[in-house]
Specification:
Largest sheet: 7 strands, mixed
Strand content: 25-35%
Mean pLDDT: 96
Strand order of the largest sheet: 1-2-3-6-7-16-8
Low-confidence stretches: none
Radius of gyration: 19 Å
Number of strands: 16
Shape: globular
Oligomer: single chain
Distance between the termini: 17 Å
Structural class: alpha+beta
């Protein structure tokens, strides 16, 4: 891995700019982990602990970034409850501009070199038929773990910001923003929703430093006892007038009260006031993960595109 350059904050801003350009021309070809907001969220929350295992490669044409690959090599994750998890395989996030589609072969070859000896996974857009053919030609197959009710593939959902319902919270609950509640409350809200989680104060500090983060678009729901019972971040892509929810979570003790639904509706009103006309949110798409999907459908989202999870074992090298 010492022969590869590691991902930097400046790289992520270039990658976000490519996401904006692809979104403007063909949004179904933006890979699920390569959106404007997803890039910021994943970089910000994890770079302090894991950047040493994040090699990257950038490809330019006439000074513009037209393709990139970000490999996440085997590493160890420490969770908020003190437990550890060894990630033994490699994963690739990547994006290729449609006008340079053939460069996907270079991305694949780079990934195979950077992650040689490890099991490799990747999730291109299922709408990108050309890319899927090229991944297959390099020995990648549908990941069997993604099949069935518990599959881990994602779908991206969208809706226009017209006719958004007014949110209604249960008595005693109120909306707050991260600017109002402060960083400690924002971090705790995420930990309570996703426990055990690898998120930390350092991770939130990284998130706040990314392009596109706004504390006034980081929304929380405060319970009558002061607990932050739900939270979400909205990432505003001003160039395309679209905003993305990532992440969305509710405290385990406050679920089934309608908090997440009200928070999403309030978030869409805030995003629209900030200039967005369109909204997206991702969720797990397999049949066994229906609660989140049904929540998003209940506030007007519908599927735009889904992942195609692929895998290559070391036996294929």
């Amino acid at each position: 891995m010492t022969d590869f350059e590691l991902l930097t904050a400046a790289d992520v801003q270039l990658m976000q700019a490519l996401a904006q350009r692809v979104t403007a021309t063909c949004p179904t070809l933006v890979n699920g982990d390569a959106t404007f907001g997803e890039l910021a969220w994943n970089w910000g929350r994890g770079h302090t602990d894991h950047s040493a295992s994040w090699p990257r490669r950038l490809w330019f044409s006439d000074g513009d970034l037209v393709a990139w690959g970000w490999a996440r090599l085997p590493h160890q994750v420490r969770f908020s409850d003190g437990s550890l998890k060894d990630v033994t395989g490699a994963y690739l996030a990547y994006q290729v501009h449609p006008d340079h589609a053939g460069m996907v072969d270079e991305v694949i070859e780079w990934y195979d070199g950077a992650a040689a000896g490890f099991e490799r996974t990747v999730t291109p857009s299922a709408a990108n038929r050309f890319a899927l053919q090229r991944w297959a030609a390099h020995g990648y197959e549908t990941d069997p773990a993604s099949l069935g009710d518990a599959g881990s593939w994602s779908q991206l959902n969208e809706r226009e910001l017209t006719d958004v319902e007014e949110p209604v919270l249960p008595r005693g609950f109120r909306f707050r923003t991260a600017d109002e509640a402060g960083p400690d409350a924002a971090v705790q809200a995420h930990l309570d929703a996703w426990s055990p989680s690898a998120y930390s104060t350092e991770g939130y500090r990284g998130v706040r430093q990314t392009a596109g983060y706004r504390g006034d678009l980081h929304l929380l729901v405060e319970a009558p006892d002061g607990t932050m019972a739900a939270s979400t971040i909205m990432w505003l892509d001003e160039a395309n007038k679209t905003a993305e929810f990532e992440p969305v979570g509710t405290h385990r003790d406050y679920r089934r009260l309608g908090l997440a639904r009200a928070m999403l509706l309030r978030g869409m009103h805030l995003a629209r006031a900030a200039g967005a006309t369109h909204m997206t949110v991702a969720c797990l798409g397999a049949p066994g993960h229906s609660p989140a999907r049904e929540l998003y459908y209940s506030v007007g989202f519908r599927e735009l595109v889904r992942d195609a999870p692929l895998i290559k074992t070391t036996a294929g090298d």
